Amino acid sequence: MPPTLAPDGAATANGFLLVLAIVLPVAGVLLSFALAGRHAERIALVLMPAGLGVAVAIFTGVWRAGRPLLYIMGGWDPPLGLALRADGLSAAMLLTTAVVICAAGLFARAEFRAPRPGQPEARAPFVFWGFLLAVWAALNAVFLGNDLFNLYVALEILTFGAVPLVCLDGRAETLAAALRYLLFALLGSVLYLLGTALLYGAYGTLDIVLLSGRVRADAATLVAAALMTVGLLAKTALFPLHLWLPPAHAGAPAAASAVLSALVVKGSFFLIVRLWFDVMPGLLSQMAAQVLAALGAAAILFGSVLALRQARLKLLIAYSTVAQIGYLFLMFPLAAGGGSAAFGSVGAWTGGMLQAISHAFAKAAMFMAAGLITRALGHDRIAGLAGIGRTLPMTVFAFGLGGLSLMGVPPSGGFVAKWLLLTAAIDRGQWWWALVIVAGGMFTGGYVFRVLAPALTGPNDPLTLCAPVERHREALVLALALLSVLLGLLPLASFGILQIGRLNIPTGVLR
Amino acid sequence: MSAATVFGLCGAALVGLGLYGLVVHSEPLRKILAFNLLGGGVFLLFGVIARRGAAAGLGGDPVPQALIITGIVVAFSATALAVALVLRLFQETGRATLRSDAPVGARVTDTDS
Fold first, then answer.
1. Residue B19 maps to which CATH number?
2. Chain B residues within 8 A of A204 when measuring between CB atoms
3. Domain total for chain B?
4. What is the reported pTM?
5. A38 has a chain B CB within 8 A of its CB
6. Burial degree of A141 (CB within 10 A; 0-12, 13-18, 19+)
7. A137-186 confidence digits (pLDDT tens)
8. B55 to chain A, minimum CA–CA distance in Å?
9. Helix, strand, coil distribution of chain B in percent, nearest 5
10. Considering only alpha carbons, which residue of chain B is nearest residue A156?
């Protein structure tokens, strides 16, 4: 069936929301520059509820209408013009992003307070608030973009926003981590751009909807797809291209680590999913999908073992991110090529995307909990955590809840995600991925226990803390951890929203 | 051999050289230069595609040319950011390498001015 220009119909009435989702944070960045760093915090705090409201409006809009929101920029239809498009998956990712960014912003207020009148202006608050908004704008552009070159620009803004967050404190270690991150990201983006050039040369359009109807399995397309995938893998930090991630994510301030680990790596993962399931669904051969999943399995085992061996809490959490990213790639062989095993297809796809969302909440909570623990103790050595469970019970509880979701213990978002992947693996007869999922869960249990065991033992006397820990920051961390658990209590059918507007929907329902 | 083929081959050669440099060299500055070489190759490829007129069979397709301009701006800012990081790293440590065998963090005082 040849797709029409815009298979979802003309631009939807509330399509302007999609523009707002990108324009609001960008306006915040520009205003911060124009009004100087003194106002950066206030601008960000005003924009956060507004941005969250827009994300909620887009989500409910897609949910109610049951079809994607579409906005044609300037009234020029693709391929001449550009479109913004929010399908169910974009809407869910937009909402996740807005929640995590708002939580990170509220959490960071204590550390990146704007200088009082009379005090000299500081660099760190200005950079943090400005670049937090830049990362938000870039992520929204990644989720809404419908043109492969637009997505390239969004990816680059995402990198440029994320790299300065890594080296906010300006120490040599974090500068080196940021530089290594940037070099990996640049290699990734230039490979992606090369793939884009080849696709344009072959099809004369970069619009995702138009491309999905035109792709053929010829040499140019396959080379382009391979280049783009490898480039995006470098940005997603899939094993063996993960080397930049642990120092970068562990060295950043807690709020920034939370955003980097929970959201920024998901931006490029989202594009891999777009590429293989929307742009060229027929081209993902079982062979290629098995390779992707094998890399994911290696990431799970390698990342978990290294997490078990870390002496520092933030590095442990960063290696756990390497492992959890691996799970995301197990969906490819299980969701590819719907056809006969349609349930495996929908279930695995939903499981993979749910893993991305529940990991975002859980990992943000864990990094923020680690930030509070580091602040209270003055260090983040795991061996020195004794007694912290008695002193900061809410924080340690939140860390544990996040850990449960990563392990896949019911009821939690992580459990539903891993369960869907597990059942899909068995349904498709690919039992080896089921083994990896179970083994990964046990390893995760091991490294979470390594933190909780010393934290929950120790002397009865309260510890003397280096710095007081505010109650509301603890509550914020707990709220994020609870969100990742609550995802597991939603009825399975409600994840059907993720299917809205998929360009190549396999038949079949979630059970 | 048409002009488009020659330029296309040049672009491919630049991409290959850049990729080789990016993988082989360990000094960040060389990596940044290699990235620019690689980027140049990609832009040349876009130029060839524009000349061929991919979209509507027109003689010169303006879309890839617009993409090149955007791409050059992005590559320029990326280079500036990377060079700024290398400079800052040099000011902090007195070295501009990422080699992991020499532990980073030993602050050399005489480079602070």
1. 1.10.287.3510
2. 54-56, 61
3. 1
4. 0.90
5. no
6. buried
7. 999 999 999 899 999 999 999 999 999 999 888 888 889 999 999 999 99
8. 4
9. 75, 0, 25
10. B74
